[in-house]
Amino acid sequence: MDVVRSLLPGAPLYDDGEAIVWGDAGSPVVLAGHLDTVPAQQNLPGRIEGDAVHGLGASDMKGGVAVMLELARDSRPARYVFFTREEVALDESPLPGVFASGVLGGVELAVVLEPTNAILHAGCLGNLQARVDFQGESAHSARPWTGSNAIHALVEGLAPLAQLEPFDVELDGLVYREVLSAVRVEGGIAANVVPARASAELNFRFAPGRSREEAETRLRELVPEGELHVLHNSPSAPPALGNPLVERLRELVPDVAPKQAWTPVAQFAEQDIDAINYGPGATAFAHRQDEQIPIANLHAVYETLARFLS
After folding, report:
1. pLDDT tens, 90-111?
2. Is the pTM of this model over 0.85?
3. CATH classification of 2-124+237-309, choosing from 3.40.50.2000, 3.40.630.30, 3.40.630.10, 3.40.50.720?
4. 15, 18, 24, 36: which is the annotated catalytic residue?
5. What is the mean pLDDT of residues 137-141?
6. Chain region(s) in the chain for CATH 3.40.630.10
7. Helix (H, G, I), strand (E, B) or coil at 33
8. 36 has catalytic annotation
9. Residue 189 — very low, low, confident or very high, per pLDDT cuts 50/70/90?
């Protein structure tokens, strides 16, 4: 945040310490990017090697932030939103404070510079994280019939999930894939004790067109056994391809794909602000130990957005 403040040419429109909004207060376009990364994986410091920038956050999404800063320093007319705490649960996001301030009033399109391989990624999946608990009764493992094994109940309860195929949802000619995965399992206290409790964390990526409440109902249908607890639930976002500004951007970037992930375009969409993903990062390298971004992508996205904003 200190580096961003030092590089922006002039005072911000808004700065609460966790989000900075800078630029033309009347522009109909927002460019947005987050400054936090996933934890380091022996990939600091960064370096330039060959035709790529390597290091933590290079693709997700310091490359996009760098493009935003260069556009701002070149006085391209837009509102620029730099914010923290995106790679965590949605309730930690500072964006609600930005929206509540009114500083984005009149915005017609938000371009989120998440990694998209320099093509357009429309909309995004919702992201529902939940825990399902299975109860049993402890007993000596030599006499398991005197108790009830919670791990066995978990295995039986999650068996249908293991056979579940991705569910394709088509919107505006784009196919989003709804998927449900068990991502963590806990249970048992000792080798000689039949466990009385076991739990699994579930991750449900749901397609645009399904509300957060509908996603929770659908998850309950898919996992009918056990006691379900929703940990956090981030909304999906529609493709917004009918927005006139998106249509203008598509003249410069004709390739469009569905965003098979969650991004902050969903937070803008919940505020009735159409949003689309377009950034220089390489999706295949996001969150990896060998994270990197092609230098050519940085130039391509900068030049495209400079033309678009002009």
Report:
1. 899 999 999 999 999 999 999 9
2. yes
3. 3.40.630.10
4. 36
5. 98
6. 2-124+237-309
7. strand
8. yes
9. very high
Paired sense of beta strands 256-258 and 120-122, if any:
parallel
CATH ID of 126-234, from 3.30.70.360, 3.30.70.330, 3.10.290.10, 3.40.50.10810: 3.30.70.360
d(CA 73, CA 298): 15
Close Cβ partners of 105 (under 8 Å, ≥ 6 residues apart) = none
196 pLDDT higher than 90:
yes
Question: Where do you find CATH 3.30.70.360 in the chain?
Answer: 126-234
What Å distances lie between residue 55 and 3, 151, 291, CA to CA? Answer: 18, 41, 6
Answer yes or no: 2 catalytic: no
Q: How many CB atoms lie within 10 A of CB 179?
A: 16
Tell me whether residue 15 is exposed, middle or buried, using C-beta atoms within 10 angstroms of its C-beta: 0 to 12, 13 to 18, 19 or more: middle
Percent of the chain with pLDDT over 90: 99
> Residues 60, 86, 178, 291: which is the catalytic one?
86
Of 222, 186, 187, 225, the residue nearest 203 (C-alpha): 222
Tell me how far the alpha carbon of residue 260 is from its chain's centroid: 9
Q: Please, what's the b/e burial string for 42-76 (b: 16 or more CB within 10 A of its CB; e: otherwise)? A: ebeebeeeeebbbbbbbbbbbbbbbbbbebbeeeb
Cis peptide leading into 68, omega within 30 of 0? no
Tokens of 179: 């998927």
Q: pLDDT tens for residues 9-30?
A: 999 999 999 999 999 999 999 9
> Strands 167-171, 139-140: parallel, antiparallel or unpaired by DSSP?
unpaired
